Amino acid sequence: MLNSQLLSLNSQLKERLVSKLPGLWIDRLPGGWFRKNKKESKRFKEKNKMSRTNFDTLLEAGCHFGHLKRKWNPAMAPYIFMERNGIHIIDLHKTVAKVDEAAEALKQIAKSGKKVLFVATKKQAKQVVADKASAVNMPYVIERWPGGMLTNFPTIRKAVKKMATIDKLTNDGTYSNLSKREVLQISRQRAKLDKTLGSIADLTRLPSALFVIDVMKENIAVREANRLGIPVFGIVDTNSDPSNIDFVIPANDDATKSIEVILDACCAAMQEGLEERKAEKVDMEAAGEAPANKGKKKATKARLDKSDEEAINAAKAAAFLKEDEEA
Fold first, then answer.
1. Interior CA angle at 303 toward 300 and 308, to 5°?
2. Gap between the Cα atoms of 87 and 67, Å rounded
3. Quick check: 162 and 109 in contact, CB under 8 A?
4. Which residues contact 32 (CB under 8 A, 6 or more apart)?
5. Do 221 and 149 touch, CB atoms closer than 8 A?
6. Residue 15: phi, psi to the nearest 5?
7. How many helices and strands in the chain, by DSSP H and E?
8. pLDDT tens, 94-105?
9. Which of helix, strand or coil describes residue 32?
């Protein structure tokens, strides 16, 4: 309803401006129209082509809708374009720039072989985050955030190892001698651990970064990361505080489409980083084969030289013994 009202109002304003200023090109913003000349418009379009996402895609996904004006956080003022019918509208041009910045940083993290932990426990984001994180082989938390997961990481690792131990003993047939009740209790414990920690079973050390959907809801995870100096990437709405977030992405964090569009751009960048890492590894292995072979040849030569010396020494010793016997 609100979106249709904004679009109809924007079309009326556009017609009025075009009739009065025929030599100018008009571009759309999520709540109004502004004018630019043709050179600026061309430069703007070229910039959008180079970006990982664009204004129109974010607009269609509803990334521009913020919260009610009375619920806003004043720290988000730089990212708010305007207020319409009691709802704040986010400036999507800043969102595009911030998505590009975050995507580039995530790409470098993935390229260095480090892990990014995705956190989203709200209903709208669970499935999207699970799919996108699994696609780039990254750990994620979509159920309850276990308190102390970062600050008390060794204890969490013990729980994950316990889950692996249960699997091992089940496969060995150790539990076959137990009663049905005991087996049922163990299987329930295994299911409970898998639900909470199954997605981070491969996380053997602390993650290098945290990607959070709705930093207000996941405030415990953000505080733990800040305490350990782990950089935080976050989709921040108008009711949240961006001061604790290292890479702020101002956008609507309540719509599934909005979350999906932003994650698409970030995960695509991470996939690029992983592919570049693989390519570099292959090149290094190809370049490292020749020195390795040379080293082996040298070692073989050294061993041959040593055996020759031993043979010569043995022959000399035999000659001396023969001379002694003759004497």
1. 125
2. 6
3. no
4. 10, 13, 82
5. yes
6. -60, -40
7. 9, 10
8. 999 999 999 999
9. strand
The token pair that represents 42 in the structure block: 């061309």
Amino acid symbol at 269: A
Q: How confident is the model at residue 291 (pLDDT cuts 50, 70, 90)?
A: very low
- CA-based nearest residue to 211, from 245, 160, 250: 245
Q: What pTM was estimated for this model as a whole?
A: 0.70
Q: Count CB-CB contacts under 10 A for residue 141.
A: 25
Provide the CB-side half-sphere exposure for 192 (13 A, CA).
Answer: 9
In terms of phi and psi (left: phi > 0; alpha: psi -120 to 50; beta: otherwise), the region of 140 is: beta
pLDDT at position 322, please? 53
User: Which token pair is 25?
Assistant: 């090109």
Chain mean pLDDT for the chain: 78
The structure tokens listed for 262 are 């932003």
Region of 67 (left: φ > 0; alpha: ψ -120 to 50; beta: rest) is: beta
> Which residues contact residue 184 at a Cβ distance below 8 angstroms, ignoring those fewer than 6 apart?
none
CA–CA separation, 83 and 66 (whole Å): 9
> What strand order describes the sheet that includes 116-119?
140-141, 116-119, 209-213, 232-236, 247-250
The two structure tokens encoding residue 253: 């964090």
Residue 71 near residue 239 (C-beta atoms within 8 A): yes
Q: Which residue has 């730089």 as its token pair?
A: 78
Q: At what angle do helices 256-326 and 92-111 cross, to 10 degrees?
A: 20
